[in-house]
Amino acid sequence: MAAVRAMSVEGTGVRLSRIVEFLTSFAPLSLAESWDNVGLLVEPASPVLVKKVLLTIDLTEDVMKEAVDSNTNLIIAYHPPIFQPFKRITSGKWKERLLATCLENKMAVYSPHTTWDAVTGGLSDWLASPFEFEGVEPLVPSLGVLTRPEFSHHVTVFCPLELKDRCQEVISRSHAEVVSTAELKTMVKFSLEAKKQFLLELESGLNETNCYYSIYERGPIPPRGCGTGRFG
Description:
Helix content is 27%, strand content 25%. By secondary structure, it is of the alpha+beta class.
């Protein structure tokens, strides 16, 4: 049996996009397992102002009837009601009827599933909380996501003080971004974020200025405390 809870939003309502933004800021979709289907699964064609939200574990036909009767605008279903691709939406199968009813009544559907399992302060942490562990860690940490993906490489540059201006010109010309600058006794250290398409131009310019540099490909940063399961 699905656990259901209805929530009302005071006033004229909240834009669906704002609610989705809030949900994904709490538990980014990147935390989901690769096999999962999470996020905004059903979105009406016209803009929606959400005045009533219905929370449920499973979106069944009984739950859908309650959502329709209570004029719900958004259903947050923990388990995703859409998992396999649909070739048609008819009244012949119950899952297809659910989607047809959502679209007919301009109801959105959002499913968090494994993102809420993995996130810090989510379901896994809640399940572990009665045991009063001294420290709780994920069994399988989340890999995380690449922040600012437009910058693919991290570059550290050391150049003589007298070549600082020339080095800065090279950096600017190659569309790299200076993260930090440190002046040493005879050298200047630049920490940069560089774009892949301009990497050769950056290397060529740095070689001309006789600077020392190292280049590393940036990787995803694992979000602390997030992942599958918990142990303590």
